[in-house]
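I am still getting used to backbone structure tokens and would like to learn alongside you. Would you supply a protein for us yourself, any chain you care to pick? Start from the sequence, derive the backbone structure tokens from it, and show both lines together. Go ahead whenever you are ready, and we will take it from there.
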Amino acid sequence: MAQSSGKKKSKITFFLGKGGVGKTTVSTAYALQAASKRGRRIVLISTDPAHSLADVLEKKLRAGMQKLPRTGLGTLHVWQVDAGARFQEFLDQYRDAITALVEQGTFLSREEIDSFLETTLPGLAEVSALLTISDLLESGKFDEIVVDTAPIGHTLQLFRIPTELARFLEFLELAGQRDQVLAQHFGGAAAAGRPKVLEEWDAVLSSLRAALSSKESKLVMVTSAERFSLEEASRTAKMLAQDSGAAIEQVVLNRVVTRAHGCKRCQMRARLYDAANKFLTRRFPKAELLTGEDPGFPISGIGNLRAFGRHVFDGKPLKLAPTLPTLRKPRAGLENLALRRTAWPAPKTRITLTLGKGGVGKTTISGGLAYARRKAQSRTNLLICSTDPAPSLDDLFEQAITGTPKSVLNDKLFHAVEIDATAEYLAWSRKLKRTIQQSLELQQGGLHVELTFEHEMLSALLDIVPPGVDEIFAIFKLLDFIEARKLTLVIDMAPTGHALELLRTPERLVVWTRLLLKSLAAHRKLPLAQELAVEVASISQRARELVQLLQDRNETSVFIVMLPEPLPDRQTGRLLATVHDLKLQPTAVFVNRVLPVTAATGCQRCERAREWQLVTLSRLRTDSLKHYAVPEFVGQIAGQDGLQRLTHRLWEIGQTTRAKELSQLREGYGHWDAMRPFGIEFA
């Protein structure tokens, strides 16, 4: 509910950015820096379904909010929001009120409504994030709420939800008037007052809208010097300005090398930093530009995070306690590590999925897999598509990619598409509204009056773009592609948390459609119910077929993408466990951006980074699942030349006593000399 006048008004700071740019590190460092000031009470929440706060803090976090010890002169609470649990709390509080309103406004019974409420809904992460922010605002306990958001596509949805919630309130209010409308029509009864629960939700919505406005909150964009990240940051800023009038106040250019001495790799990264600074100055002329330097090792633990916060937000020199990886048996794993030259895989399955944490290079690896397959199978009709709400295929192929498949790389059998789930939903809702209207025109008399109200109510419901629309309608579009013609599909998935939601959606659709069909059966004499039942049955059948297709190893290849760093490594372990629970069969793991041996010579920063990478590589379970090593490339992999360069070399990671095979990395692995040192420019 809205804050009362006697409560403290909390400031909200949102950290936005593409996955992999260090958003969690930067937001945690900021929260610790803010909590170091006397009397300041700060709370840091993570809204990403694939949380990494505990990993960054090097602490085991329990469910719910907890206070961190020894954080400075102020206090810092942290909260990794469990979307399902938080939404269940909301349902438990308002279940009776929701059930009464929906039962009053639809032909669904109380038992049927309860069944729907018990099923897991899509879009919980965004809704639960807003419910959590609302609770914190209502408490008035904190000076500042710091929000570590999900990757950009789903953060944009978070800012759009208040508008859709307002429409949903209008729908519920309309639903609550159904009996009154009928009573007035047939008996002249007086209209009743507005339900109390709607008044309460209106207050919550007003509070959230005020909090998300640019006056009540601060938006901090975190980006790296990579072109994909910079372009996505720029696009996001434009969308936020258009959707909610919100403006980016600060931009943190993170994981950069600002100057270098002697090391070719660091010299190139310093040039990338200069080019990125010029890009951000042009695209964010009113924002304050801040810099987070890359020390060559993971920044974690309260001490180093606080020091990093002083560096980024107070402009202090970066002074961290260097951390080195530890092995249970010193160097035992490294002695057996080997990389053997191999060719890029070109699976013959109908579907290829790439999964992984944001920022690990899923789009690049997806492009590499698609490109390698077209080269190996010249007659294959191939479509690469992105289900990410913030896709990057246009950056990869250096041409505009839309919701309609387009030929790429001058190849008539190679197409790309970026799924616009919202547009797909709106097209579907328009079709359904036409069906309802046609059915209504067949009815007469009192039933016509009742169905007129049903039509108005359903139309209001269909005008709402629900949270989770990405998962459901991305699945519908994928089914369309699979069924429309014979083709091979390479799917560049959204970052981990939301990709897993999409993969769970087909089975959920089966459950939801079963409930809907059961509800419609009671009204099977009505043409409207008959039309809806046909649509629902079709969705159910298609969802079942997709579940079977995804779980069939002969039909679907699943590639996991990770970086050779501790945080992505831990998250990949959790991802593999979940993929197994979904009954999917992983084909292989791509370990992306592996440093060449030559890049580390004589440079302390690169030597530290390479040491961390080698230890991470040595811990991989290559005996149970195939792992590939992809070299790090300076600059952006894009276009025909970039994809050809990417797929030119690949190594399979193995455990063997032939450690000398590691020297294969020296042979032009990173292509440092092939780059144009002074030709880096971002438009």
Q: What stands out?
A: The first strand starts at residue 11 and ends at 16.
